[in-house]
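Structure ticket #2291
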Amino acid sequence: MPSIRASQEERDARKIVSVNAETVTNVTSTDFPGHYPGEDHEWDLEEFRNTFRVKFHKLQPLDASFSLIGIDASIANAFRRILLAEIPTLAIEYVFVHNNTSIVQDEVLAHRLGLVPLTGNPAGLRWLRQYRKPTDEDPEGSGVADNNTIVMKLDVECTKADNYDDLNKRGEDDPRLLYKHAHVYAKDLEFVLSGRQNTYFEGEPNAVRSVHPDILLAKMRPGQCINMEMHCIKGIGADHAKFSPVATASYRLLPSITITQPILGPDARKFARCFPRGVIGLEEVTPEEAARKGSGYEGHEGEKKAVVRNTFKDTVSRECLRHPELEGKVKLGRVRDHFIFMVESTGQYPSDELFLESVRILKEKCAAMKRGLGNILR
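Resolution: structure written out below.
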């Protein structure tokens, strides 16, 4: 049976998830996404290269927004899940408390330390291996070594400032001025070089440190001190949220707005107010449009008409579907294969590198699966 090929109009319609006043339709996919009975959908690498696109909308060190266009939801969701749970990072895992006379309990302080995001020389972080914890099956584990464990120390004591008496006489009440180490911050964590780590982590820009030095860990008063040693290991977000390199990683589908009938005059202004600013614009009906029969603009030359400007800013609130005068004049939807990602890094990786890391990890997973299938077929 010869294969058929859908028209461009039908292929475009398949991409739209329809958003109606009370329902959402055209949401289901086929058993094999992107495949339809009687049509030839054989994988074509060249066609994928021509249709798949990556477009960046915002690129900042800790915040990025970009679009993946021309892929299935399963692939986009795989990237999202990898960003959240499978990119390895460094975090404090073990805390050895030698002395803690602050009012913060040992367990609470250890928990706060574990959530401090750490960074360092990227080459060194890639060099580090993941520490394998002892289990019933493997009582020894991997053991502590210079290539799987980073050691940090916190040794601070609160004392009165050198000019405490003068400040006290003036009525100063800010403890940060009256005392030394009244507030303990993440910048007080000291990195301890060990073994081969000096190859990667020696010097100020390369040393392991907190991404945000002003994270408050504890408050103390004279006579109180904290002395502890911490072991940092690599892990993934699937093990614990502290290892996740992102504060958030999410995506949404690109909104689609199609004006099916002319919207003019007061209705056009009301229509524009139904959307966030910049989504809908107002333009004058041109003489050519007014003279064209069947355009719907006959006799309305110079009047304001509604036009779609930028659907990227839309939130698909469906507000325009509430008004009777706009009924049947607009169709709302979302583009099925246009995913707008929002990635907020916690600082271990620049936001743009996070996506590249997720691609690398997905490639490794695919290679492992391919090897497994090859072993089965042998």
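Closing remark: The chain has eleven helices and 18 strands.
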